[in-house]
Write a structure and sequence with these properties.
- With 199 residues, this protein is of the alpha/beta class.
- Helix content is 15%, strand content 32%.
- The strands form 3 sheets. Strands 1, 2, 4, 6, 8, 9, 11, 14 and 17 form a 9-stranded parallel beta sheet that branches. It has an 8-stranded mixed beta sheet with strand order 3-5-7-10-13-16-19-20.
- Strand 19 and strand 20 form a beta hairpin.
- It is globular, with a radius of gyration of 17 Å.
Length: 199
């Protein structure tokens, strides 16, 4: 669902995918290979929202701001399920965990990881490569090369997802029984703990 508001029409690159059950409104600019999941609300009614190339905004996320503010989610920013970004700017290749809340005028540095359910207070400045957790959120350590490599691989799955959605996603009637030849999906990505426990 894509809506104009006060004459502002969202701009979405044709390589990006906005799920039909997401809502994108007003002064929103979405770059290349972005994924916007069902239930996401990106409201550019009171200010501009820019999603640079390769950003994903997953299911049930909200992106909004106070009037007159403009925000940017930089290239390859990764916003996990249920997160709220209210008037904050996200750095390049950062990870925002599920159900995190990031408040107005906060700045998340490049390649930082904000843990699930963290609360980042207004005007907080998080330096690049920081691992942030808690309520209120605190920096607990620096993000290692291994951690950011793990994050980058996960984001690449989301950058492929728009093309996969365009080629295979379609509305259907459900099956009434499980087919005998139904296969499980490939195990192409593991949790951070699984990734490091095998080394």
């Amino acid at each position: 669902m894509i809506y104009s508001f006060q004459g502002y029409i969202p701009v979405v690159h044709n390589s990006s995918f906005v799920h039909p059950l997401a809502a994108v409104t007003g002064n929103v600019i979405i770059g290349k290979n972005c994924y916007i999941g069902p239930g996401a609300a990106i409201r550019g009614d009171w200010g501009q929202i820019i999603l640079e190339d390769g950003v994903n905004v997953q299911e049930n996320c909200t992106i909004h701001m106070f009037p007159g503010k403009s925000i940017t989610l930089k290239e390859s920013a990764h916003v996990g399920h249920g997160a709220v970004i209210h008037g904050a700017n996200l750095g390049k290749n950062c990870l925002i965990g599920m159900n995190t809340v990031i408040m107005d005028d906060a700045e998340i540095g490049d390649e930082s990881i904000v843990g699930a359910m963290a609360f980042v207070k207004a005007e907080t400045k998080i330096p690049k490569r920081s691992l942030v957790v808690g309520n209120p959120a605190k920096i607990v350590k620096q993000v290692s090369d291994e951690m950011i490599a793990w994050k980058t691989k996960g984001t690449q799955l989301y950058q492929q997802l728009p093309a996969d959605c365009y080629s295979t996603l379609k509305e259907v009637e459900p099956l009434r029984k499980v087919p005998a030849d139904r296969k499980l999906q490939d195990d192409v990505y593991k949790t951070l703990r699984e990734t490091f426990s095998k080394k």
